Amino acid sequence: MEAAPANILEQVKAGRRLEGVDIVDAHAHLKKSPAGLIWPRNVEMLLADADRCGIGQVIASHVVAYMAVSGNQIKAAHDECADAAAKYGRRLRVYLVFHPRLLDTSVAEMQRILAPGSPFVGFKLHGAIARYPANGPNYRPVFEFANEYGLPVLLHPWRGLEGVSSIVKRYPRMKLTLAHMGLLPEEIGALLKQQPNLFVDTCGSTLSYRRLERLVRQAGAEKILFGTDATYLAIGPQLAKIGFAHISEEEKRLILGGNARRNFGSRLAPPA
To answer: Quick check: is 4 in a domain?
Structure first.
C-alpha cells in the first residue's frame, strides 16, 4: 500500500514536487518569445515550471495585452491566449485584459468570455501600468459585466486601496481579487473581513515578516488566493511562502487551490 503524501511543509522543506495538493495559480503571465532568450516568457516555460512544482492549473494574462498601446495589440494577445489554451487543454485558463485607456476594444472583447467553451475565466486589470484608479469611470463597463455574470476580476490597483471599498459594495456579485498582498497597506485585513466579495493574492517578490499569518488571523484563509506572478517571478519561492507559513494544513490547502475553486467554479478543470 502506497504511503500517503507528506504534508505541505514537509514536501516544501524537502524541495519536492508537491503531491496530493490541488494547486491553482490564479496570477500568472505569458508572452510569445523567440527561442534562445535568457528569459523566455512563453507558455511552454510557464507550464513546464508549473508541472515541476506540482501546480495543476494556471490562470494567466498576456503581457502584451496590459502593456498595449493599440486595440489591435489587445486582440492579438487574446487570440494568442486562446490558441495556447486550446493547445494545452484546461490545464491553462486565461484572463481577458481590460485596458481602461483602450476602452472601445476592451468593451468589445468582453463578449469572448461568454462563448461556449471559452478559455477566458475572468478579467485582469492592471491599474498600476495604466495609471488608472480603481474607481475611475472607464472601469465601470467591466465591473458591471462581471457583476451581472458573477465573474472574477484580478486588479493590480493604483493608489493602494483608494475606491476599492465602494466598488465591492456596488458590485456584490463580482469577485474582486487585489494582486500582490505584500504591496497593500495594513488596513486590507479589516477590509477583507468586511467585504465578502473581496480577496487578495499571495504573489510578489517582497512580503513583510509574517504578513500572510496576520491576514489569515484578521480575515481568514478563505480570502487569500495563491498566485506566482510567473513568468516574472520564479514559482518555487512563491510556493515556499505558503509552505513555510505558520498556519494550518487546511488553511494552506484553501490558499493554494480551494479558494480559487470556489471563485472560478466550473470554468476550471476538475482537480487531477
So the answer is: no
- How many angstroms separate the CA atoms of 6 and 12, rounded? 10
Q: What radius of gyration do the chain's Cα atoms show? A: 18
SS3 200: strand
Q: Is residue 266 part of a domain?
A: no
Amino acid of residue 112 = R
pLDDT at 88: 94
Which structural domain range is residue 80 located in?
A: 21-261
> Which residues of the chain are under the pLDDT cut of 70?
1-4
pLDDT in tens, 193-213: 999 999 999 999 888 889 999
**Is 130 within a domain?**
yes
Q: Give the pLDDT confidence of 124-169 residue by residue, as tens digits.
A: 999 999 999 999 999 999 999 999 999 999 999 999 999 999 999 9
C-alpha to C-alpha distance for 247 and 215, rounded to whole angstroms: 11
**Has residue 2 been placed in a domain?**
no
d(CA 253, CA 73): 37
Structural domain total, the chain: 1
Query: What CA–CA distance (Å, rounded) separates 82 from 87?
Result: 9
Helix/strand/coil for 13: helix
Sole residue written with cell 481590460: 98
